[in-house]
Amino acid sequence: MRPAPTVLVAPAMAIGSAYYRPLVEALEARGWEARALPRRGFEPGQPRAGRAHDWSYLDEIEDIAAAVARARAERPRRPVLLLGHSLGGQLAAGHELTRPPVDGLVTVGGCLPHFRDYPYAGLHIAAMGALVVPTLTTAFGYLPRPAFGGPGARTLMREWGRMALTGRPPYPVEGRIATPTLAISLAGDDLAPARAVDAFARRLFEPEAVTRWHYRDVDVPTGGSNDHITWVRSPGPVVDVVGSWWAGRAG
Fold it and tell me: Exposed, middle or buried by CB within 10 Å (0-12, 13-18, 19+), for 116?
């Protein structure tokens, strides 16, 4: 029988690892190992982004690679799953394209934020990429609050902005991801619409590698949420789908 996996959760933009405690606990209740990875600039005691403290997408991907290597060294028989939420999904995809792959990938609300994949011509996304991010990071040396993602690292946010305008991720794409992947979209998600999640899967992944699930409003339990951020606080439906998907892959 295949051992239970170790799940490494890559957080969304501007969200620290502590927020994911309910998700980690729900995964561990299945008998899996789980941990939420630190998000640079948003962990207690770590320096915030600033003019003198900057980092990039590739720096964050290297953090994930180090965590994967550590998990494999600690539990060499356990498969490793990456669960990337929003920005974490972009970073997890970058890991799979540039580093030795993990055994399974789950993205929740993960997409390439290309303005063309958003409703209303994506004008708000294009404005962020073309105007807001370049202007504020030049003026302050980082992206300050209350801007989306603030306080955000100058280089990472500029890379995000270019991706929003071009649809090209800020890491090498020399092939397609073949890692078994569950790509989850959330109904009514303005930050990662289903159309953008579909485009993410189509552009970066081998078609046969991807299983899609759309978390509909009718699937939300009483007191739960399928909001882009707060689904984490009531993660049962997502964890159940991840468990069923992985059992099918492992079987």
Answer: middle
What tokens does 194 get?
């289903």
Nearest to 23 by CA among 246, 239, 250: 239
Q: Is 18 exposed, middle or buried (0-12, 13-18, 19+ CB in 10 A)?
A: middle
- How far apart are the C-alpha atoms of 24 and 36, rounded to whole Å? 7
Q: How many whole angstroms separate alpha carbon 7 and alpha carbon 5?
A: 6
Radius of gyration for the chain, computed over Cα atoms and rounded to the nearest angstrom? 17
Nearest to 109 by CA among 220, 236, 195, 15: 195
Pairing of strands 33-36, 6-10: parallel
- Quote the tokens at residue 112: 């390439």
The answer to whether domain 6-113+176-250 has CATH 3.40.50.1820 is yes
- In this structure, what token pair is assigned to residue 11? 């957080």
Instruction: With CA atoms as reference, report the closest residue to 184 among 171, 197, 170.
Output: 197
CA gap 165, 193 in Å, rounded: 16
Query: What residues pair up with 181 in beta bridges, in sequence order?
Result: 105, 210
pLDDT tens for the chain, 251 residues: list them: 678 999 999 999 999 999 999 999 999 999 999 999 999 999 999 999 999 999 999 999 999 999 999 999 999 999 999 999 999 999 999 999 999 999 999 999 999 999 999 999 899 999 999 999 999 999 999 999 999 899 999 999 999 999 999 999 999 999 999 999 999 999 999 999 999 999 999 999 999 999 999 999 999 999 999 999 999 999 999 999 999 999 998 65
